[in-house]
Design a protein that fits this description.
This protein is α/β, with parallel strands linked by helices and 467 residues long. It has two domains: 256 residues, Glycogen Phosphorylase B (Rossmann fold), CATH 3.40.50.2000; 184 residues, Rossmann fold (3-Layer(aba) Sandwich). It contains 16 helices and 17 strands. Strand 4 and strand 5 form a beta hairpin. The termini are close together.
């Protein structure tokens, strides 16, 4: 089976969030299962494209109010585990950022160029798998645009990684979409706007989300798409994301100060913790709590300054915060360093290596998210023997069970300062029960959240559309 994943992000080429991690791993695991799975994404002006060489496999041009030339490039000396194809449109996509204020034209051009290439292949794909609204018009164009008539019987799947972002734009730009029967324009519309995500839900053969619980949540909280998702529920399914257990393996992770396995977790984590605490002036004898991620409302980041302040008052823990986002939240979190020197520190920004070390060093990972379609951080934490403290939403609810209910993590019911603060209080008590805490560490490192099973679930879904 020939599968093409089409996405704005893919690790390690360009990653903003969990979308990049998923698209960088799922095709690799599908190939391991005997399929032919590839990725199509934009060619950005970034470190990856500067440090690798590419060859051209196709050139074309399209009209988007004016004519744009494009190339399809493939990676030479590829060791990713899947074929990578980059859409190079210098005037639209060759940027040092992934997302911007003119993404309607940028990603519409990307989708048109990708389809212009696919439609002329000698062997058409068996499945086109689209990811989020940036590729949401592909199912419509494949089924309705005259230029892609050859692809209309190719099954399409749309995966919703975050339903809050939908790519809305005005009907004034409908002429930018390759010509189609205008009587079908309703397939593009939702609430008087062209809505790429809504169009994908209507036109794709299957709709998936990145966890079962998130699929159910979207039917009641999807930023305006609730009725549509309930109406289309017959073709909707939630499939839990996995993690790349080769990239995220404490036994082989070359980012770590010391590698470790389940058997050597206590000593291995201790070395990483001591290094991190020395580097950031923290006390390694105290339980270490970490936050890793974007400082935005969806992640509950605005709650962190008060939660941390409440917890640090007793000076019986250390906290390390890694992330960036809302400038006000950044300032409030940074300000706490002056109040609690030796107990609290921050790294404002993105640092992949530090993130890996922090997963290995921390005893607990804090995730007070208001919205978490799947969440990968809690799975990385478990893999590294770090106990996740999570709000009971989305994929967090699917992957974490509370230790007081025969589980292994800490759940709280609601994204509030009170709930988050009490969860940290419970965590400290758990940490102080030394034997139970060490046994729990060994347990959580054995939990299998690899992509192996989820990749097979997707293959079964594809087969149900082909057969």
């Amino acid at each position: 089976m020939t599968i093409f994943h089409i996405s704005a992000e893919c690790f390690p080429i360009a990653k903003v969030g969990g979308l990049g991690d998923v698209v960088g791993a799922l095709p690799k695991y599908q190939n391991k299962l005997g399929e032919t799975s590839s990725v199509i994404m934009p060619f950005y002006n970034n470190k990856f494209t500067h440090s690798h060489t590419f060859k051209k496999v196709f050139s074309g041009r399209f009209n988007l109010g004016r004519t744009f030339n494009f190339d399809i490039l493939t990676l030479e000396d590829n060791t990713l585990g899947y074929d990578l194809y980059l859409v190079h449109i210098p005037e639209l996509l060759y940027t040092d950022y992934v997302y911007s204020s003119n993404d309607t034209e940028r990603f519409l051009g990307f989708q048109i160029a990708a389809l212009d290439w696919l439609v002329q292949l000698k062997t058409l794909p068996d499945i086109v798998h689209c990811h989020d609204h940036h590729t949401g018009l592909i199912p419509f164009m494949m089924s309705q645009s005259y230029a892609y008539h050859k692809l209309r019987n190719t099954p399409t799947v749309i995966t919703i990684h975050n339903g809050q972002y939908q790519g809305w734009f005005s009907h004034n730009k409908i002429h930018l979409i390759p010509p189609f029967d205008f009587s079908k324009a309703g397939l593009l519309d939702w609430k008087h706007l062209i809505n790429p995500l809504a169009s994908a839900i209507k036109c794709a053969w299957k709709v998936t989300t990145v966890s079962p619980n998130y699929m159910e949540e979207l039917k009641f909280a999807a930023n305006g798409l609730e009725d549509l998702l309930r109406y289309e529920s017959g073709k909707c399914v939630g499939i839990l994301n996995g993690i790349d257990d080769k990239v995220w393996d404490p036994a082989t992770d070359d980012s770590l100060i010391k590698n470790y396995s389940v058997k050597t977790a206590n000593s291995g984590k201790k070395v990483n913790k001591e290094w991190l605490c020395k580097e950031f002036n923290l006390n390694p004898e105290l339980p270490l709590f970490a936050f890793i991620g974007r400082l935005v409302g969806e992640k509950g980041a605005d709650l962190l300054p008060e939660i941390f302040n409440n917890s640090l008052y007793h000076k019986n823990l250390s906290i390390m915060m890694l992330g960036s986002g809302d400038a006000v939240v950044e300032q409030e979190l940074d300000r706490l360093k002056n109040q609690y020197p030796g107990f609290y520190n921050t790294y404002i920004g993105y640092n992949e290596r530090l993130a890996h070390i922090l997963y290995a060093a921390a005893d607990f990972l804090v995730m007070p998210s208001r919205v978490e379609p799947c969440g990968l951080n809690q799975m990385y934490a478990l893999r590294y023997g770090t106990v996740p403290i999570v709000n009971k939403v989305g994929g967090l609810k699917d992957t974490v069970e509370d230790f007081d209910n025969s589980g292994f993590g800490i759940l709280h019911d609601g994204a509030t300062v009170q709930e988050g603060s009490f969860a940290i209080h419970r965590a400290i008590n758990f940490y102080n029960d030394t034997d139970r805490f060490k046994k729990n560490r060994n347990l959580i490192m054995k939990i299998d959240h690899s992509w192996d099973s989820s990749a097979q679930v997707y293959i079964n879904l594809y087969n149900s559309l082909i057969l």
